[in-house]
Design brief:
152 residues, mainly alpha, 3 domains, two-stranded antiparallel ribbon
Length: 152
C-alpha cells in the first residue's frame, strides 16, 4: 500500500520475485562461497537475490552430482541409444543378414556348377605326399607336383 499525493490509499499488486536463471557455473560459485567461512551465508544470499531454500537445492544438486560421478567406474561407459536408433539399427542388421544369406545361396549354386557331375572340382591339384606327411613328395617323384588324374 502506498499513499498518493491527494491522501488516498492505493493498493499495488503484490510484487513477485522475477525468476532468475543461474548458469551451472554461477550456482557452483555460489555453493563454493557459501561453503567457505569468509563471508556469511545471509550476505551471499542477499547479494545474489536468493532464498535459503535456493541454496539448499543447489547444495543437494551438487551432492547428487558428486555422488553420481564418484560412483562411476573408470573406463568405457555404456552408451545408450534411443528407441528409434535401436529399431533402425535392428532393421539394417536384418537386411544385411538377408543379403548375406542370399549371397551364400548364390555361392553354393556356383560351386555346384563348377564342380560338375562327380561332385569334385576337376581342376584341383593334389600333392599326395603332403597328405601322408611328406611335404613335396608324391607318386611322380621326389619334390615334383603334378595333376592327380585319379580325380577325373
Amino acid at each position: 500500500m502506498s499513499v498518493s499525493n491527494n491522501g488516498n490509499l492505493q493498493t499495488s499488486p503484490p510484487s513477485r520475485r522475477k525468476k532468475r536463471f543461474l548458469s551451472p557455473e554461477k550456482k557452483y560459485q555460489i555453493f563454493l562461497e557459501a561453503q567457505s567461512k569468509d563471508a556469511p551465508v545471509g550476505e551471499i544470499l542477499r547479494r545474489e537475490g536468493l532464498y535459503s531454500t535456493d541454496l539448499t537445492r543447489i547444495r543437494c544438486k551438487v551432492k547428487e552430482a558428486a555422488l553420481e560421478r564418484l560412483s562411476m567406474r573408470p573406463g568405457a561407459q555404456r552408451k545408450t541409444v534411443s528407441r528409434n536408433q535401436y529399431d533402425a539399427l535392428k532393421r539394417e542388421l536384418e537386411e544385411k543378414e538377408r543379403a548375406l544369406a542370399e549371397q551364400a545361396v548364390e555361392l553354393a549354386i556356383l560351386r555346384k556348377k563348377r564342380m560338375g557331375v562327380r561332385g569334385r572340382d576337376k581342376r584341383q591339384v593334389v600333392n599326395r605326399g603332403t597328405e601322408i606327411g611328406y611335404p613335396g613328395y608324391n607318386r611322380m617323384g621326389k619334390g615334383t607336383r603334378g595333376f592327380d588324374y585319379s580325380l577325373l
